[in-house]
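=== Structural record ===
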Amino acid sequence: MNTLPRTRRAFLRSTSAMVALPMFESFGWTRFASAATAATAVARPRRMVFLGFGWGVTRETWYPDIKRTGADYVLPLGLKPLDRHKADITVIQNLSNKFNNEAHWGSTFYLTGANRYAEPGQSFHNSISADQVAAETFGKGTRFTSIQLGCEQAEDSGHGPGLSLAWNRQGKPLAGMNNPVVAYHRMFSDESTPLAERKAQLRQKRSVLDTVLDDARSVGRGLSKNDNDKLSEYLESIRDIETRLSKEEQWLGVPKARSANPPAEPTGEIAGYEEVRIMYQLMVAALQADSTRVITYRQPVESLLKSIGVTFTGHNMSHYASGPRMEASQLRDQKQSALLAELIDRLKATKEPDGTSLFDHTCLSYGSNIQSIHYLDNCPTVITGGGAGVKHGRHLAMPDPKTPLCNLWLTLLQGAGVPATAHGDSTGVIKELVG
């Protein structure tokens, strides 16, 4: 049997791979942390997780009674599975994105709050999403600056344009991993391509990138102002690619970290309820291994409905009235809340090296840009976790029914330690959360 080295950061070696282990107490992490604390406080890293779903909720049975705010409120049918975590969640009403007017776009502007017509002459414009603002601060020291998870046929699930919940500084969509198998191998599987070959591939990509940049700069001479603006945007996108290549080079040869309790490798066709459950497990494992500190998940609705026995499409279900379609919508709400409750269970059960839990250092938001049917006000919103310093166990109803949803993102970003002064159409922080 191999004897593991008693270092703070140990590795498992086999004939074909080397895998980094988490920081175990047995390897001296507790002693190291205690010694460090004596000189200066050792703060656990903050994490931010954004969960978004399409087609909204059943407004009659998902929202708490708006007249019963504070701690003394009753979780309604749609949120009832979260009852065991009631002291650790906050339900917020009267948040919305004022520029959103697309009833079938549940996540396109969810984290950005952008006005799609903000650019003259263009029919679509977006801006940076809250998760990417966080990633600029939290992603510098992790293998993945951020992780985007998604689902197949996202528009059928009420999400609208985009490749994930995430949009970069130029308002361009960031690709997401759309099934658990792809996500597992991207986050945890060992690289099968030899290191020398991977280095060569990166050199080739850089060579192509340099050629593109040279050509783009030469084209720029003599262009009109509008064309130069377009070229500048294009060059910004190229610089983003360059940044990603630099990050990839930085982590070449560094084995992928594993959590102390890694999830089993997903196999076969996984869809709907089990798909969300496994994605949640992968998220917790990635956070525990410190592979990333920022995650978004654009969740499936269409396949979820099929997996729980609903025969309506997501769109038809969302146009519910009393009867089977409303019952299907209510069942969807309960199943989604049950999965969220399981995720919170896992975050609480996952211990950090200092004895705290992952939940204590993670800020998690859950909701949609759509209320229900074609209603876009009062976006369904639940937040939880200790990563943004929010005091939970409350139901808040904002006095202004048009309070920007971006006020919440700004509040959570600042609470998590991100130096943001504004976001989207924000008008300030939500003082009720930070007071």
User: Anything to note?
Assistant: Confidence is low (pLDDT under 50) at residues 1-25, 27-41.
